Amino acid sequence: MIKSMVQFSSALLLSLAMISGVFATPVDTYEFKSVDNQKRALELAHSLRCPQCQNQNLIDSNSPVAQDLRLEVYQMVDAGKADDEVIEFMTSRYGEFVLYKPRMEAKTYALWLGPVFLLMCGLLIGFFFIRKQRITEVDDQEISAEEQNELDTLLKRDSK
Amino acid sequence: MKKRLVLFIPLVLFLVMGVFLYKGLFLNPQKLDSALQGKPVPAFQLERLEDRSEIITNESLKGKVSLLNVWATWCPSCKYEHPYLMRFARQGILPIYGINYRDERSMAIRELSREGDPYTKNIFDHDGRLGLDLGVYGAPESFLIDHNGIVRFRYAGPIDQTVWNETLLPMIKELQAVAKLDGAS
User: Fold this and answer.
1) Which residue in A88, A137, B14, B178 has its CB near the most CB atoms, within 10 A?
2) 8 Å CB contact of B128 and A91
3) Which has the closest alpha carbon to B88: B120, B41, B52, B48?
């Protein structure tokens, strides 16, 4: 038991170490003007998708396009550009597609609100279902005096 | 009866989802609409590949419906595309402008003289800045530009006869008809 716990916790630690490792080391070396800039640029690059290797963000991907765009993000951040400006720069060239987190607008309402809507539906269905069951349960309990007598005699007969 | 119908709701939901997921199997996620569609070609000022002293700008592309083709010597799919471009260029349907993307000038010139040059002019985009502004994410990519210099369509990937016949040519014809109405050639 203890051994397996040790194994489990070391595996957990190892995977955690690997996660932070990936986050902390960008592929290329770029000298940022400040640590704050670096943090902001890396966060931005993490939130943008590489247009070529579509399941990777700009940091993870090593495709030439991702390298270019990464550098572009770094330079823009270092030049004091706001996050919105960087994102605008990317979407005006590569489209909404590069955003891992789509914007809230008319065509993405279904995407953003769909899950809430489905949850509401589920809750509503659940609510009515339970209420209906309660009602039928109450119905079951109401038996007439005649039926009660009959039941009693039957029970008595069986217990004899 | 009504109650029975309610029981079919999960099945209907399942079928609807099934149809969408089935369709999803045949979607190509690599095919992205260009964010530039309907917008003017980004402003640029670049040397001509063959002649350093000649500067090509976005204004140079106006006047005629044209095809912008992003290519490079390091790009294998461009080599597949090349003979088709040669054929389309010989037909003289529209000017084809090349964007030599992140390439070496001497290598590009050598390749064109060896394999043939389908391009009306070649724009030398050495650092890939124009490519970046066009939202290029790999070569080859082609952009249909109307006579006002507006990007009308982007095709990512090599053009071959099928793409040309089924996708590009009908659009070119349409754009050229509009251009004619506007009085451009």
Assistant:
1) B178
2) no
3) B120
End-to-end CA distance of chain B: 68
The ipTM (two decimal places) reads: 0.72
What is the reported pTM? 0.72
Contact B137 A95 (CB under 8 A): no
Q: Which DSSP string do the residues of B65-105 spell out, in sequence order?
A: -EEEEEE-TT-HHHHHHHHHHHHHHHHTSS-EEEEEES--H
User: Mean pLDDT over all residues of chain B?
Assistant: 90
B35–A64: do the CB atoms touch at under 8 Å?
no
B74–A contact, CB cutoff 8 A? no
Residue A1 has pLDDT above 70, yes or no: no
pLDDT digits (tens, 9 = 90+) for B144-170: 999 999 999 999 889 999 999 999 999
- Inter-residue contact B138 to B106 (CB < 8 Å): no
B141 assigned to some structural domain: yes
Can you give the CATH number for the domain in which B162 is found? 3.40.30.10
Q: Indicate which of B137, B143, B151, B154 best probes the interface with A, i.e. most A CBs within 10 Å of its own CB.
A: B137
CA dihedral sign, ordered A125, A131, A136, A140: positive
pLDDT, averaged across chain A: 82
User: Residue B8: helix, strand or coil by DSSP?
Assistant: coil
Together in a domain, A95 and A145 = no
Residue B156 structural domain: 37-181
Domain count, chain A: 2
Q: Residue A114: give the domain boundaries.
A: 108-159
Using CA atoms of B12, B18, B19, B25 in order, give the dihedral in degrees to the nearest 10. Answer: 170
Confirm or reject contact between B63 and chain A (CB < 8 A): no
Distance CA A47, CA A99 (A): 7
